[in-house]
Amino acid sequence: MKKYRADIVVTLKNGVRDPQGAAIDTVLKRTGMEESAEVHVGKYFNLVISGENEESAKQKLDKICEDVLSNPILESYKVERFTEV
Amino acid sequence: MKKYRADIVVTLKNGVRDPQGAAIDTVLKRTGMEESAEVHVGKYFNLVISGENEESAKQKLDKICEDVLSNPILESYKVERFTEV
């Protein structure tokens, strides 16, 4: 059994309202830090996945991302890093 | 004035309790998906920073990360991407 460490970023799909991002935009504008920062907020996950090989570990990771870490109706996920440990 | 797009990840510092991560660990274990996933949860931000040059934009970004996007007592941040747009 091999172990892999993965970084996942989950973000809202295009067109889904991002009130947290809008709130930060407002703060940055009001404080004069940035006029138009176009902030998008998402979630970040770092986790360890075990598997016979990279292929099967990636398949398991996809299932975890779809079923547990994201809501596929509103959010999409991206595997940012995937390395054996 | 140049514009840069940055990806930021904010995570809890070592030793700070991560109840969200622990909750996901429990779910993955209970469902038989992963025995010990060691999940760490963080926040992800994508934003646009303007500046005279890369140096001054990065300085502004650091200030925004410390003052607005993270709580430096509990969290640390990392600039994952920084590219001119």
Report what the structure shows.
The structure is a homodimer of 85-residue chains. With 85 residues, chain A is α+β, with helices and mostly antiparallel strands. Chain A has one domain (2-84): Phosphoribosylformylglycinamidine synthase subunit PurS (Mth169, Chain: A), CATH 3.30.1280. The first copy, chain A, contains two helices and three strands, in the order E-H-E-H-E. Chain A has helices spanning 19-30, 54-69; strands spanning 2-12, 40-51, 75-84. A three-stranded antiparallel sheet of chain A has the order 2-1-3. The longest helix of chain A has 16 residues, at 54-69. Chains A and B meet through strand 1, helix 1, strand 2 and helix 2 of A and strand 1, helix 1, strand 2 and helix 2 of B.
Summarize the amount of helix of chain A as a percent range: 25-40%
CATH classification, class level of chain A: Alpha Beta
CATH topology of chain A: Mth169, Chain: A
Count of domain modules of chain A: 1
Secondary-structure-based class of chain A equals alpha+beta
Question: CATH homologous superfamily of chain A?
Answer: Phosphoribosylformylglycinamidine synthase subunit PurS
Report the oligomer: homodimer
Read across the widest sheet of chain A, the strand sequence of neighbours is 2-1-3
Q: Which stretches of chain A are poorly predicted, pLDDT < 50 over at least 5 residues?
A: none
Output the number of helix runs of chain A. 2
Give the DSSP E fraction of chain A (strand runs of 2 or more residues): 35-45%
Number of strands of chain A: 3
Mean pLDDT of chain A: 97
Largest protein interface?
Answer: A-B, 31 and 31 residues
CATH architecture of chain A: 2-Layer Sandwich
Radius of gyration of chain A: 17 Å
- Biggest beta-sheet profile of chain A: 3 strands, antiparallel
Spell out the helices and strands of chain A N to C: EHEHE
- What global shape of chain A is seen? elongated
